[in-house]
Amino acid sequence: MNKDWLEKDFYASLGVSKDATADEIKKKYRKLARELHPDKNPDNPKAEEKFKEVSEAYDILSDTDKRREYDEARTMFASGGFGPGGYGAGAPGGGSYNVNMDDLFGGQGGDFSDLLGGIFNRGRGGARSPQPRRGEDLETELNLSFDDALDGVTVPLNLRTEAACDSCRGTGAKPGTMPHTCPSCGGQGQVARNAGGFAFPETCPTCRGRGQLIDDPCTACRGAGRAMKTRTVQARIPAGVKDDARIRLAGKGTPGERGGPAGDLMVNIHVAAHPLFTRKGDNITFTAPVTFSEAALGSQITVPTPRDGNVTLKIPAGTTTGKTFRVKGKGIKRKDGKQGDVLVTVEVAVPQKLSDEARVALETYAGLTEDHDPRRDLMTLAGQ
Ligand SMILES: [Zn+2]
Ligand SMILES: [Zn+2]
């Protein structure tokens, strides 16, 4: 008997009536489980919470014995003065939590806990483990090349995590033997403890909540049923992922226990720097050197773009150093199908060595452009 039972309306959780057939319950559960599954609702703690609630409700209502116990427990509490709505948040009159159990049961606290104990132990067949448990979330680091980050990539990640032990297939018992139901708690993992006339459930001290006892522990896992294993997970990294991004891969964490869902895997992305390209949002930037004559006379220069090879860029006559040109649609691919641009900044490269002819030609050029003083306004602007 679980104290939760008095507070939780499993029928309401599944959205079925109290006299729903097993088939109706199963159908409703499958529909809800599909909708609420964590794989379908990544990063949605509300859906996750509801998923757990629905799973718990189904666990009870799908088991004929448990359902009968649950119904009986709730009926008993309802008839004990809690009104037809039962014991819980929906009870008419609200505030009926502060009921004195001795008043209710005429001071016969002992009888009361016996009553609960009776419900508790009845109809419990084979060993049933306690609640399913969701697997733990894991975290891992992933280094990506600049190109892989641009294009997206599926990479195998080797994870060392806990999983069911191979030797005992997770039972914890030596192969060939089986764990047996804990006699103290009947496999429930909890026992009723009488406190102030009210029976509270507490973790069974004999089996420490496992519901089962193992006489001959598995030597491989020393009875834990779990072992460290290397698993390989295929991680799909979307195109355009940024450096320092954190990607959640739902259900790729530690496998759950007793049918619980797997945890999630958080992947911390580190993108290697590129020797030429720099990323700015959805755009790629880099600097292309041009000669003075290309900038002054205008020219067509060939520049690279990531992945897509080279493009020809038209530099108009009179282009100043530092001017940026846009190559449309060659940048980062986005989820919506659009693509960023490549931004090419030109920078005039000054030759470090000149041939005699080139020097003469430049001196001729200097003589011909004496009238052009680029610093004419400098002193004025400085206020001198
Ligand atoms: Zn084992
Ligand atoms: Zn026990």
Automatic annotation (TrEMBL):
Keyword Chaperone carried by entry: yes
Domain CR-type positions: 152-230
Pfam families the record matches: DnaJ (PF00226), DnaJ_C (PF01556), DnaJ_CXXCXGXG (PF00684)
Entry GO MF terms: ATP binding; heat shock protein binding; unfolded protein binding; zinc ion binding
SUPFAM superfamilies: Chaperone J-domain, DnaJ/Hsp40 cysteine-rich domain, HSP40/DnaJ peptide-binding domain
InterPro entries named in the record: DnaJ (IPR012724), DnaJ_C (IPR002939), DnaJ_domain (IPR001623), DnaJ_domain_CS (IPR018253), HSP40/DnaJ_pept-bd (IPR008971), HSP_DnaJ_Cys-rich_dom (IPR001305), HSP_DnaJ_Cys-rich_dom_sf (IPR036410), J_dom_sf (IPR036869)
UniProt key word tRNA processing: no
SMART domains hit by this protein: DnaJ
HAMAP family: DnaJ
UniProt protein name: Unannotated protein
Organism: freshwater metagenome
